[in-house]
Design a protein that fits this description.
three-stranded antiparallel sheet, about 100 residues, alpha+beta
Length: about 100
């Protein structure tokens, strides 16, 4: 399984380029109210969905940073910037430049 995971990761990097940084929503939608999750089934279904995007980065052994991009007074959401493994410093430099551009007024 670990070999298959490594092959998939290499395939993704070969497709997008090892130096690429891609952007994606941190979560697929805003988090629901806690009361909506008080039963096990809604909780587990929602939890799987909310972790989907970050699980992809973890599976690919990438690194990511999330930049807040929601308007004041609204539910928090973020934009993830993602890079290949060991690209942390470069990713942080890109995030430092990108953050002011996506900040909500």
């Amino acid at each position: 399984l670990l070999d298959a995971r490594a092959r998939i990761g290499r395939s993704v990097l070969n497709s997008i380029g090892e130096d690429a940084i891609w952007a994606m929503p941190t979560v697929p939608h805003t988090a629901p109210e806690i009361a909506a999750l008080e039963k096990d089934e809604p909780y587990f279904t929602t939890n799987r969905l909310m972790l989907r995007n970050v699980a992809l980065v973890n599976f690919l052994v990438g690194c990511a940073i999330t930049l807040p991009c929601h308007a004041a007074g609204t539910a928090p959401v973020g934009l993830s910037l993602v890079a290949a493994s060991n690209q942390d410093r470069r990713l942080l430099a890109v995030a430092r430049t990108t953050a002011p551009l996506i900040a909500a007024p």
